[in-house]
Design a protein that fits this description.
Blueprint lengths: L2 H5 L3 H4 L3 E14 L2 E7 L7 E6 L17 E10 L7 E12 L15 H5 L9 H23 L3 E2 L5 E2 L15 H5 L17 E2 L4 H11 L1 E9 L12 E10 L3 H22 L1 H11 L3 H10 L3 E4 H10 L16 H12 L3 E7 L15 E9 L3 E8 L4 H11 L7 H8 L5 E7 H9 L20
Parallel strand pairs: 3-5, 6-9, 11-12
Antiparallel strand pairs: 1-2, 1-4, 2-3, 4-5, 7-8, 9-10, 10-15, 12-13, 13-14, 14-15
Helix pairs in contact: 4-7, 4-8, 7-9
The structure holds 4-amino-1,4-dioxobutan-2-aminium adenosine-5'-monophosphate (4AD) and magnesium ion.
Magnesium ion binds next to strand 14.
Main location: cytoplasm
Family: Belongs to the class-II aminoacyl-tRNA synthetase family.
Protein name: Asparagine--tRNA ligase
Amino acid sequence: MIIERIKGLFAGQLLGKQVTVAGWVRTRRDAGSFSFIEVNDGSTLANLQVIAERTLTNYEDEIKRLTTGCSVVITGELKESPAKGQAVEVLADVVSVVGWADPESYPLQKKRHSFEYLREISHLRPRTNALGAVARVRSHLTHAVHRFFQQRGFFHIHTPVITTSDCEGAGEMFQVLTASEAARKGALPEQGKGFFGKPAGLTVSGQLQAEVYAQALGRVYTFGPTFRAENSNTSRHLAEFWMLEPEMAFCDLSCNMDLAETLLRFLLADVLAECAEDMALFDRFVAQGVIKRLQHIVDNDFIRITYTEAVDRLLSSGKSFDFPVSWGVDLQSEHERFLTEEVYGLPLIVTDYPAAIKPFYMRVGDDGTTVAAMDILVAGIGEIVGGSQREERYDVLLARMQHLGIDDVDYQWYLDLRRYGTVPHSGFGLGFERLVQLVTGMPNIREVIPFPRTPGYAPC
Ligand code: 4AD
Ligand code: MG
């Protein structure tokens, strides 16, 4: 039985009954005629205290040799615990040792290790309290995402990982080659050659394919890994990250913003209600006050301003930034932080960015210089959502692609969507790791994905 059940709802019903628990030893402490063993099975943050009496047959040979990290299966009676801070404990009848963990070489000890150190042992770090909590909260959020969309009539679409379209047009696609193609020195397959007949890569976004399905099924979402060969070694960039991308037909920019805001507030409220124990750990040891900050987001409307207003606000602040601000520049993280942390104190939806700094698919505004884009910025992280209303007018889209030098032959399928039954439609991408960072307060994105991939780093 998992410890989460034993300590949770069913504790009362199980008192006096035999239970069997399988997990890993956190600590062992000897006290005269018995030992206390703290066992954790990962189902919950809490350990289960086990009392192993000296009378057990393997007490001297095995139980007294148990150290942090050993795996055990324990059967015994669940009793009320006289100890402070726990309701129940197990009086063991049987303690079987399944696997030993040599204390001399086991890298995890009963002390706080730095996150940098834990990154070097990504195969063992989920056994720590903080990284275990991150994994449970991440799993919960994944489930909450599906619940949110399924309750609202969206269909989940599996978009491809390998693609020949560079959605964002930023030249950050990883190339996909067969081993023999790669062995041919220095040569990328030419157009018309190679495994797929043309250059292919790992997707940077599932959006373009989600648009196909939105214009058939109405409201869809895709949620999968995306890849970017961005050489940025920051606390919020990964080369492989998960993105949640809804796409809605018959939906304009304001409908898009409403959905993104409702989604974020739903997810935060859900995790606060359902993951209280793990959230309390983050609040205490990782990011003090994170629960209050999330509740503040849940309780208040986001602030909506245009890019032009954001630039004016930055210019009138009198603050000197490393990257000087002027209309037309992309907002840097220092600008995003200033706006969210020092000016507004709430998530900020910035709309109507200059067309020149946004991808080809965004709908061009009446002024001809801005696009119907929206980014959501949050304190401590910066951009967490990037989205837009898509250009649904065939001629305008074609002209923009030609202007940007995008080969429209490769995108006939995308243009077809505008040729046959085109509709206003919108969508956005939520960076899932940035969401997990916001929720847990983890300072570095490398801690919120099980196996981070960053420049120079992909150990297993
Ligand atoms: O703003 P981005 O590039 O938008 C798109 O890819 C759109 N095609 C999405 C859409 O409209 N369907 O990326 C969306 C979000 C960002 O706001 C950020 O949260 C996250 O993805 N993101 C990253 N997260 C971690 N590491 C990276 N290198 C990231 N790049 C973007
Ligand atoms: Mg963006």
